[in-house]
Amino acid sequence: MGVSNNITACLNFLALLCTIPVIATGLWFASKQGAECAHLARWPVAILGGLLLLVALAGFVGAYWNRQGLLAAYLFAMAALITLLLALLVFAFAVTHGSGAYPVPGRAYREYRLEGFSAWLRGYVDDPRRWEGVRACLAASDTCRKLGMESAFFVAPEQFYQSDLSPLQSGCCKPPTACGYAYVSPAASPAADADCGAWSNDPRQLCYWCGSCKAGMLGTLRDQWRRANVALVAATVALVVVYVIGCSAFKNAQTEDLFRRYK
Q: Are residues 128 and 76 part of one domain?
């Protein structure tokens, strides 16, 4: 195996390592709270990472055993997958630019409004049939149940008001502050917010039909995407650098083979 092929094999091994954060990010998406209810981008990242892994493995095999045809196919496929990864990142940053969160006086937690999110994300939860499935899933989950168990130990409303609530807990498990309801561990009893009429103390209802709950779901998905983008950006940069160097090594390997043939 020539020097250039050795370099190409090492580079493809590095590419293999670079795919691990992409796969791990996809699996992390699937395991996070809310992901089991919202199937938005649940597996595409992991699938893309798996494809990158297979292509990088093919490139490593092609370089190690000097299979120029396999290396050429690897370079073409890797370029296509990196392009898809870049497109996914651009799309993710574009649709998550707005947080939808706003502070509430006297509260440690934030509340969420649909108007603060991108039109594409709002369209995801505005579909009544899709939201019915998400709502039923949230009602069956332990998102609000856990908050209820924690709040049972509070002796004053201020303890609840100073809680660090997740977007889902803030949007789905309590009425909006604008409704002016009184705190009752953590239910409420009797405004200007449209969600006030949708609120119910029934644990099966709560605020699952509220716009704030939809916004809380989008807030959860947005936070997850923002965190995942850090790993995806790092992996993409590394893959691009390895790919560019790999293209140069591939050309050198072809030159070495040409010299050996006519030597």
A: no
